[in-house]
Design brief:
Layout lengths: L1 H17 L4 E3 L6 E9 L11 E5 L8 E4 L5 E6 L8 E8 L2 E8 H4 L5 E5 L2 E2 L5 E14 L4 E12 L4 E2 L9 E4 L5 E7 L6 E4 L2 E4 L6 E12 L5 E2 L2 E2 L4 E9 L4 E4 L4 E7 L2 E11 L4 E2 L1 E4 L6 H8 L2 H60 L4 H16 L1
Helix pairs in contact: 4-5
Amino acid sequence: MKKIKAFFLLTIILLVYEYEFITYADENTGSIVILGALINNTNPETDLSSIEVFMSVPDATKPPSVAVTGTDGGFRFVSEEPVLNENLYVFTVVYENAVYGTSVTGEQIFSNKPILIEVYNSTSDQNVLRVLNHSVFIGAIDKINMRIRVLEMQTLYNDSFSTYIPGDSPMSLVRFGLPSGFEKLSLDTVLKFSEVFEVNNGFALNTSVPPGEHEVLYSYDLNYKNKELFMGRSLPYPIEIFRMMVPANIGELDFKGDGSKTIVDVQGETYQLLEKKELLSTDEINIVYRGLPEPSIYQRFTNLLSYKNLIKMAPLFLAVSLFLIVVFSVWYYKYVHISKRQRLEGLSDKIEILKAIRINREKLKTGELDKVEFEKIENELTDKWIT
């Protein structure tokens, strides 16, 4: 190991000596020449020739410039545009399916320090990955909505001299287990060029992991009910130390298996601290957070009538309103409208009977009917009126 480090140091010294002025102006063309080199930290004797190196400026409209390394891994960019001190210049390379890079300002380019990009051989062996520290914190507890915000930090460690790259299987992605039902995942990591995939039991990164330590920070929401929350998870990689910390005065942590639980003081605040050590990738963490606060009946009612919930329930209110309109329309047509029409028809019949009674009485006066016939017709019309 010491011999390899000494060789790296000697290589850097030779490069600096060879390119004493890393950036200079070409007197013939007036262009700016930028020099740099690739270094293989896995095997310094690896041939690094014929590899494309890209130089770009973020937010620039021009495409990246491309240079090809020589036999010694060195590369050379010729820029016809001036190098500005305030600009950021990014140098990237793809080596054995992993992306490496470095970024410098224009001022740093003219500092005569070598632009070196360290690369590694690649491996798809997941056994090179483990977690040094895994910490879980309860960031906030929303009693009204029965929801907690969880913050987690993992130190992912590649203890080999090769960069881990995912294989063809989805299980080879860099994975992180989470409790089921998590929502609103937010991620921050130093791992470069990461693509995030959410799965039922956590999330995965389609990224390479160079040798060394890499911090991964993320947060998410969990909903609980009946005053408790199950926070179990599977472990994709071995964990040296797992810690979970929650407020000492809110709820109680209950766990299975080996581990210890203590009360600690952090800047005047007391917390329950759960600690487990030397966990294997075949293990599971089973933790239940009990005694969580619940809202009162009044708080439940006011929360139900909150603007946010009313907006969520608007489609339901609309559907119910449309249903009631349809039911009312059917009822009105079937009962009210038909009944009204029947009443109008009955009123028309009554008017005709009254006309017949008046005509019958006029005929009695004019002598067209005798008393017997008049009374007979009068009785018939009266019966019709009653029925």
